[in-house]
Structure formats: structure tokens, C-alpha cells
Amino acid sequence: MKIARTLSFIAGITAATLTTMPTPAAAEDVTKISFMEVIHSLFYSPLYVAIGNGYFEEEGIAFDLIAGQGSDKVTAALLSKSVDIALAGPETTLYVETGKSPEKIRIIAGLTATDGSFLIGHDPATGDFDWATLKGKKILGWREGSSPAMFLRAALEKAGLNPDEDVEIITNVAIPARMGAFMSGVADYGTFFEPDVTTLEANGFYAQTNVGQAVGNIDYTVFIARQAYIAEHPEVVGGFVKAIAKAEAWIAEAPEADVAQVLQPYFPGVGLDELSQSVLRHRTAGVWKTSPAVAPEAIDALQDMLMHNGLLAVETKVAFENVVDPSFFAQSAQ
User: Fold this and answer.
1) Which of 33, 55, 119, 257 is an S-S bond match for 243, by CB 3.0 to 4.6 Å?
2) pLDDT tens digits for range 118-128
């Protein structure tokens, strides 16, 4: 049943919540593409740095930021050809590859190295957080089959907990309603991405720990495109990956205050101090990739996780080359 539910999202298009964000002024010789991100989050800061620092403009690429509110919705838009390039969880590429869609998609670049969500509680954390203390608690999670849902389960299992028996995970709250639901007391804990983490802390809640640190490095958010689009527009895809590579290298070394200045136009409701703290929080957790390359080992680990959660049949394990197009990795490093 889980596998059937997971694959069903490719059958049709679900209306997305659209949020248009500013992009630099386009040059005369520019290619305007259609792009969609899964949600709008500081977790994806290297993407916004690539826009704000003009790296996409240097490559002759322009686009508006549209948040699809879920990898299932983003991938459906990609398959319908409403979107050219998208930011989503890598598991969606596997679901499509093993499904019945005639259109296939490939990962063209990696953005985040592991889960960037943070466990939020009602009380301050004392010392190093012990995941085992969540036994008997109610946790506001994410849609079943999504990356944050799987990584939360993995973190609980590493602490010796059975996610189906030792805790209660709420998975049916829509993304736009999650923060309000948590603040109203629907759960003891919840996992959230920035800038929601900063907002919740400002409202009297407390970040406990990072989920990704508990699980380890498995590529978590990637850029994807249809195989046909990649074949038809290799210069655009190559330029896109190159811009991301520049941003990943810059954000790895730049002072937090400088990064905050670049990010502020994309998060107008968050102050510079809070943005700097968020950059430091993400760096400390080690969630941003320093190169867009996605390794075969990461895809193997992801598939093992999917199979363990009953979301991918063992007999349908996919070869790396049927998931990732690595042809732009070396080019982006030049």
C-alpha cells in the first residue's frame, strides 16, 4: 500500500501554492526558464545566493521563484512540462523511474547534504539532545514518503525507537498549516525548516537538535529536470549547475553577515541578525553541499532507506545512471 500511495502522485497535477520572489534584472541575452522549489526555506540558501550574487545572470539564465509546497506537487508540475527545472527530494526521481510515467527525470545537481530540519520543542534543551527521550511523545511530522518523514523515522530508529509504536507521528497536516498547528499545541515536538525555526523560537519554542546530524549524509534536496529537457537544452542545464556550484563554494566560506545581506531580499520578514544565526545554525549542522556532485553511494543509501520504509520494492532498485545525470558536475567545477 505504501508503494502504491507513493507512486500515485505522478498521475496528475495538484495545484501549487505560488510565491514569486525577486530575481536580478535580466540581461538582454538571457534564457527565461520555468523553475519551482519545493518550499521557500533558508535551508536552500545556496540557491538564493546564486540568484542574489548574479551567478545565474552570468550564465544567461533567469527565472522566478515559485514554491510548490511539496515534492509530489513539484514533480507533477515537472512531468506536465509546466516546469523546466525543479528543486525537490531525490526520492521523487526514483518514484518516477520505477513508475509508469513515459516521462523520466534525472538529478542534475545536489544542493543539500542531509536533512536540514530541526526538532522543535516546548521547553529548552538541556545538554546534548537524546532522541530516546521522545518515547511516548507526539511529533508533528511530514507527508508519508517524503524526505523529512523518512529522515525523522531514521533518526528515531537510530535511537532505538520504533516510529510506529514508541511515538505518534502526525503526517496529515498541510505544509502551510504546520507552524500554526504546532503553536496551537497539536504535538509535543515537531520538525521544521528555517525560517520557521526562527519564528517559532521568537514565539517561545526551542530548537532541540538537527535531524540530519542524527542520520548522516544522504543527499536530501536536488535539482531535477526531464530527460528530454536536458537533451534539448544542455547549455541551459550546464549553466544552471555552474551557477549553483559557484554559490555552494561562496556560501561555504563567506562571513555569516555577508550571507545574511544577500539573503535578506528573499526573506523580508527576517532580520539580519536572525539570518546570520540561521546561516551559522545550518553550517554547524553541515547540511549544505560544497559541490553539486551527487555520488553513487548517496543514491544507494537513499534507496536502502526507501526500501526499509516500504516505499520502494527491493526488486525495483534503480541503477545510478538511471537516477543521476553526472555529465554537468565536472563542467561546473571549471
Assistant:
1) 55
2) 999 999 988 88
Q: Which residues in 104-139 are b (16+ Cβ under 10 Å) and which e? A: ebbbbbbbbbbbbbbbbbeeeeeeebebeebeeebb
Span 118-215 CATH architecture: 3-Layer(aba) Sandwich (3.40)
Query: What architecture is the 2-114+218-332 domain classified under in CATH?
Result: 3-Layer(aba) Sandwich (3.40)
- Which H helix or E strand runs over 263? helix 256-263
Cell of 140: 508533528
Output the average pLDDT for the chain.
90
pLDDT category at 331 given cuts 50, 70, 90 is: confident
Is the pLDDT higher at 207 or at 330? 207
Nearest CA among 73, 7, 31, 79 for reference residue 227: 79
**Separation of alpha carbons 190 and 33, rounded Å:** 35
Q: What is the location of CATH 3.40.190.10 in the chain?
A: 2-114+218-332, 118-215
pLDDT in tens, 126-185: 888 999 999 999 999 998 878 889 999 999 999 999 999 999 999 999 989 999 999 999
Cβ atoms 159, 132 nearer than 8 A: yes
At 332, the pLDDT band (50, 70, 90 cuts) reads low
Residue-level pLDDT at 334 = 60
What gap in Å lies between CA 58 and CA 153, rounded to an integer?
Answer: 41
Query: Which residues touch 65 (CB under 8 Å, ≥6 apart)?
Result: 19, 20, 21, 23, 35, 37, 40, 51, 266
Supply 54's cell numbers: 548574479
- Residue 138 in contact with residue 168, Cβ under 8 Å? yes
**Cα(271)–Cα(258) distance, rounded to whole angstroms?**
13
Average pLDDT over residues 212-219: 93
Rounded to whole angstroms, how far apart are CA atoms 61 and 66?
A: 16
Q: How many CB atoms lie within 10 A of CB 9?
A: 22
| Helix, strand and coil percent figures for the chain, each rounded to 5 | 45, 15, 40
How far apart CA 149 and CA 218 sit, in angstroms, is: 14
